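pinging the channel bc i need a second pair of eyes. not urgent but kinda urgent?? the chain im working w is below, pasted from the shared doc
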Amino acid sequence: MTSGSVQKMKRIFKKIPKYGYVFAVVYFLLEMFCYSFGNFLANVIGTAENPIIPKIPCIDDKIPYIGCFITIYFFSYIFWLMGTLATSMTKKRNFVNYLFGLSIAYLIGFLIFVFFPTGMDRVAEGLIDISNGTGLNALSLRVMYALDGGNNAFNLFPSFHCMISTYCYLGVRKQPEISRGYRIFSLVMTVLICASTLFVKQHYFVDVVGGVGLAVITHIIAGLINPGKRFER
C-alpha cells in the first residue's frame, strides 16, 4: 500500500463519526445475541424439537457446493461493520432510518427463530463428509459447522447473513456522501455473500429470499415512518 493510499484511508476514517463506531459494534453484537438467544429460547420452550426444514429439493439439490465461497461467507462479518460505518457517514436522517429498519428486521427474525425455528440435517445432506475432507476450504467449513450447531444447523430462515448484507447496501444506496465505487462494491459484496450462503450449503434458497425480502420490506417501512425526519434540517 502506497503512502498516498494510507493517507486516503486516514482521511476516510477521520470522517466516520464516533457514534458510527459505537453502533457498528452494538449491532454486530446484537446479531449474535438474536441468533444465539433465539435458539436458546426455542430449546427452552420446546419449539426447536421439531424444526421446519425450509428445503425445496428441486432447487436446493441442484445448487453445487463451491468451497472457495467460504472466504466470502466469513468476510461478511467484516462487511457488516463496514456497512454501518459507511452509513454513519451519510445524513443523520438516513442513518437513523437505517438503524430503525434494521432493528425491526432483527426483532422479526428473532421471533421467527424462537417460535418457528428452522433447521438442516448436515449429515443427511452429506455436508459433514465434505467438511471432513482435506484442504483449507474443508477446514474452514469444519470450523463454521462447529460454531453453528455441528451436525444440525439452526436458525436458517430468514438468513441473517443475507438480511444484514442487504441492509449494508441499502444504507448507502443513492447516498451522495458515499463514493460511487463503494456503493458498487457494497452491491457486489451483497450478491456474493447471498450466493456464498448457498454455495457453502449453510442455507437453503428460501432462506436467502426471506433474508433479502425482510431487509427490503423493513427498509421501506422505515422510510415510510421516517423516524430520522427530525434531522432533515
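so The first helix runs from residue 3 to 15. and Strands lie at 119-121, 152-154. — does that match what u expected or am i reading it wrong
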